[in-house]
Design brief:
7 strands, Alkaline Phosphatase, subunit A, seven-stranded mixed beta sheet, alpha/beta
Length: 286
């Protein structure tokens, strides 16, 4: 039997509390959980880093905690990405003929705002819809991120893709996490996620492709909205992961951590995780 070519899609739902998910109808997330897993995780204590966007996504994408990657806040600061690059860079370093995609709107991911750009280098195609240039901010930019990501996944061949939605975080800041607005924002991101997965399934060579799909977040929120501190509400995260039309092949331990995401995705893509990378996470395939 011919081995299918590995691909990976990581979808970020910014500022989504894990404990709010169970009360919602989220077909895409549930489908991933049913064939793989959905498990809560915890971001570092405030003594290491604030529960904020830049530290959270730096941790998710590099496979090391803030004590190594150096990003502890959303403010300008030096980083250690030269020693601990994000996984899109790791992938291209190992496979120079590969192709990576990032569709994002957070200024710190795609521009020099704060400690950014977190996605400097390693991205074959970067589509950046700056939240600062739309009157609705993330709420206006997320639909553009979705449409561009869907088009790229349908028409081009990316080994590794990262798609980031910010509307849930913005909604929590505006309305808190207890009401209908926040629930609706999560449902919308789940709907977009489902459409991206359906786009992958409709690719002409999908039967010959081995897709790993990951959904995760960078931090939680207080009930009334806001984050950055040390409460259990703010430190919440989660990882959902599945192989489309395939057995995941492993079960995560109770000690699953956000730093395990990057080495797990790289292993799926055929990149050997080396000891001298000094990662804090490890491939779940072990």
């Amino acid at each position: 039997m011919t081995q299918r070519k590995p691909y990976a899609l990581i979808i970020g739902w910014d500022g989504v509390r894990h404990d709010r998910l169970s009360a919602l109808e989220l077909p895409a997330l549930q489908a991933v959980a049913d064939t793989g897993f959905l498990q809560g995780t915890t971001m570092p204590e405030e003594s290491q880093a604030k529960t904020s966007t830049a530290p959270g996504w730096s941790t998710n994408l590099t496979g090391v905690w803030p004590t190594k990657h150096g990003i502890t806040d959303n403010e300008p600061m030096p980083n250690n990405f030269g020693l601990y690059p994000h996984l899109l860079q790791r992938f291209l370093d190992a496979k120079p003929d590969g192709n990576t995609l990032a569709c994002v709107c957070a200024a710190m991911l795609g521009s020099t705002k704060g400690p950014g750009p977190i996605l400097a280098g390693g991205v074959s195609t970067l589509i950046f819809h700056d939240v600062r240039t739309h009157p609705l901010g993330p709420l206006g930019r997320d639909p553009l991120v979705f449409e561009d990501a869907r088009r790229q996944l349908a028409e081009r061949d990316y080994d590794l893709s990262f798609v980031y939605f910010a509307g849930t975080d913005k909604t929590a800041h505006l309305s808190g996490t207890l009401g209908k607005d926040y629930r609706d924002a999560i449902v919308q991101e789940d709907r977009w996620t489902g459409e991206l997965i359906n786009t992958i399934r409709q690719r002409p060579n999908f039967a010959e492709e081995d897709w790993l799909v990951v959904i995760t977040t960078d931090h939680g929120h207080w009930d009334e909205g806001g984050h950055g501190g040390n409460s259990w509400q703010e430190r919440q995260s989660f990882i959902a992961m599945a192989r489309l039309d395939g057995d995941l092949g492993f079960v995560p331990s109770e000690q699953l951590a956000n730093v395990d995401l990057a080495p797990t995705v790289l292993t799926h893509l055929g990149v050997k995780v080396l000891p001298d990378w000094d990662l804090d996470g490890a491939p779940l395939q072990r």
